[in-house]
Amino acid sequence: MYHNQIKRIREEKGMTLVKLAELSGISVGYLCHLEKGSRKNPSILVMEKISKSLNKSIAEIFFEQ
Length: 65
Fold this sequence. Notes:
Blueprint: H1 6-12, H2 17-24, H3 28-36, H4 44-54, H5 58-62
């Protein structure tokens, strides 16, 4: 089952979804779908942008459970 840590890490950092969208250049709507799990398998470019914005590795966000 696909599960990412975007929401958990974002909230731990006190970051809003809007702020993450601004930092990553990814739309709020797409980020919301990723957090909810209704969109799966983001591209490596999207994973890189999110991980850089959250100051975490791709593995920490998308592959660790």
